[in-house]
Structure formats: structure tokens, C-alpha cells
Amino acid sequence: MLPPTSYIPFVFASRLIVTSTTDMSDEPPKSIFENVWCLWDSGAQTSFILTSNLNSTVRDNRDEGSALMDITFSDVNQTIALAIHFRPQLPNGVTFIILGQHALLNRLQYQIRPVSINPQFSQEFPSAYGQLK
Q1: Phi and psi dihedrals of 105, rounded to 5?
Q2: Residue 32: helix, strand or coil by DSSP?
Q3: β-pairing, 79-87 with 47-50?
Q4: Which CATH architecture has domain 10-129?
Q5: Burial 53-84 (b: 16+ CB within 10 A, else e)
Q6: How many Å separate Cα 67 from the centre of its chain?
Q7: Residue 98 CB-density burial (10 A; 0-12 exposed, 13-18 middle, 19+ buried)
Q8: By the 8 A CB rule, do 63 and 75 touch?
Q9: Looking at the DSSP assignment, which residues form a beta bridge with residue 33?
């Protein structure tokens, strides 16, 4: 499957789950999207989705607000959890999900755990790895 256009950056989300911010039950209402292309907006601070794409219980019967999002990308064995905002209309009338680069990268920064470093690398390149023992 090809992205909608080759001129703007789209990323493929294998699964995206949006849940309510107010329902604290064990099984809150969800809107699930699978195998969707999302715009990777390098200028956006946060992510956005159209209100009409969400179940009314997920959005608490409001036209705009915030929800929680868990996103999984193909070939990445990690789910990223962050906020997503819903609006009745998105810029330029777009209907696809917009992923805010700043929020995603900030969230990734705190979720990714480095793999073990080969001790030989730390001996050969001590400045690159700091004072690893």
C-alpha cells in the first residue's frame, strides 16, 4: 500500500487506539484504527484527529477536546502512549490523522531504553559513551 502522496511525510501506523480521558474503568471505550497512513507533521506540537472519526463515548459526546492514544508502527516492537486532540475540522480540510512530531519525539525520548553496549566499544570510543564501566 502506498502513502497518499510522495510529497509530504506520511508514516504507516499498524494500530492506533484512541480512548477517553475521563473513563477510568478497566475497559474504557475505544476507537481502533488499523493499518492507517498518518501525516508526520514536523511543525506540530501535538497530534490531531477528526471528531467524526471517534466513537461518541470516546470523546464524551463533545465536539472537541483531548483523548489518549496508543500507537504502534510496523516493524517497531513498542507502543507509544500520548495525548491526541480531536476537532470537528482540521487544517485545509484534511481527514487523515496528524501526528505531531514534537510530542512523539519527546515521548519516545523517555520510553526508549538503550540496549546493552559492547564493553569493547566503550574502551575504543570512551568519549562517545561517557564513563561506562
Answers
A1: -65, -40
A2: strand
A3: parallel
A4: Beta Barrel (2.40)
A5: ebeeebbeeeeeeebbbbbebeeeeeebebeb
A6: 12
A7: buried
A8: no
A9: 16
Per-residue pLDDT in tens (0 to 9) along the chain, 133 residues: 555 555 678 888 888 889 888 888 888 889 999 998 888 888 888 899 999 999 998 888 888 888 888 888 766 667 788 888 999 999 888 899 998 887 777 766 554 444 455 556 556 655 554 444 4
Which residues 6+ apart lie within 8 Å of 47 measured at CB? 69, 82, 83, 84, 85, 97, 98, 99, 100, 103, 104
Q: Of 61, 76, 48, 53, nearest to 20 (Cα)? A: 61
Q: How many residues does the structure list for the chain?
A: 133
